[in-house]
Amino acid sequence: MSEQIFFEDSDLFNKAEARLFSVFFPLFHQPHKPNAFINVMLWVIFIIQLVALSLFRIDNSTQAQTALSRIVNFIDLSSLCLIIGKNSIFLVVGFIILLVLLFVLLMICSFIFRSLLTTQPWIITLVRILHDILQRILYIPIASVCITMIDCYNIVQINEAGEEIRTRYWRAASNNICMSSIYQIVGVILAIITFIVLIVYCGTLDLLIYNFNPKNGGLFSCPDGLFNFIQHIFILSLVFIL
Fold first, then answer.
1. Lower CB density within 10 Å: C or N end of the chain?
2. Which helix (H) or strand (E) is 100 found in, with range?
3. Average predicted confidence (pLDDT) for the chain
4. Strand locations in the chain, DSSP E?
5. Of all residues in the chain, what percent carry a pLDDT higher than 90?
6. Distance CA 56, CA 80 (A)
7. Whole-angstrom distance, CA of residue 25 vs CA of residue 223
8. C-alpha separations of 79 from 73, 84, 87, 141, 237 in Å
9. Taking residues 98-126, what's their average pLDDT?
């Protein structure tokens, strides 16, 4: 596909969008008949994570996870974060590094795509797999880990004068008052950065890549890019609510 084609429809896409598309598009191959097994497997994993997320429960009397939730929510890493406590900040750091590295890999592979295609095509395949893992498998765990950084709860105590005293504690480290630990403060900042990077990453690829070449041939084919982005925002909101 020549570069001239990218600029034909100026009403739909401006030059910057077309340029970005021309750089990144080769990495996101969208066949009319994709491998059904891989897509079904990714959907199954995604659905299992959603079901696990819906089973997240906190016992209001103890402010601790229920027994079922403690087991099931290892799938979306919620239980792991609550077990390791303030050290869950290192999971957030790891996810940020993963996002940045993947974006850098995408940039490098895009600019030397032809060279890699003829000499090391497995690298392109690896990048595509990592991208699918990020958007289809790690999306919910990343959101869950980040939310752990800001999840606090209230403890109501009554003093000798009969007055109610409300104290907020960090759920990941119940011995720390909310936003009093340097781990939580830094974790919240990193979580916000992670959310921004994740949304920008998904939005850039969904709105500026997939919309150029949508494939709507079946249930497990690549949907329209706008639909993809709305789905990502909806899932992120769902994780916050649950």
1. N
2. helix 89-111
3. 78
4. 58-59, 64-65, 152-158, 164-170, 173-177
5. 9
6. 13
7. 15
8. 5, 9, 13, 11, 19
9. 82
**Cα 68 to Cα 216: distance, rounded to the nearest angstrom:** 39
Backbone torsions φ then ψ of 165, nearest 5 degrees? -120, 120
Element housing 234 (H / E)? helix 225-241
The tokens describing 237, both together, are 């909101």
Domain range summary for the chain, segments of one domain joined by +: 14-148+177-241
> What does the alpha-carbon distance between residue 135 and residue 152 come to, in Å, rounded to a whole number?
27
Its pTM stands at 0.77
Cα distance between residue 123 and residue 142, in whole Å? 24
CA distances in angstroms from 25 to 52, 89, 195, listed in the order given: 34, 34, 24
> What average pLDDT does this structure show over 117-139?
83
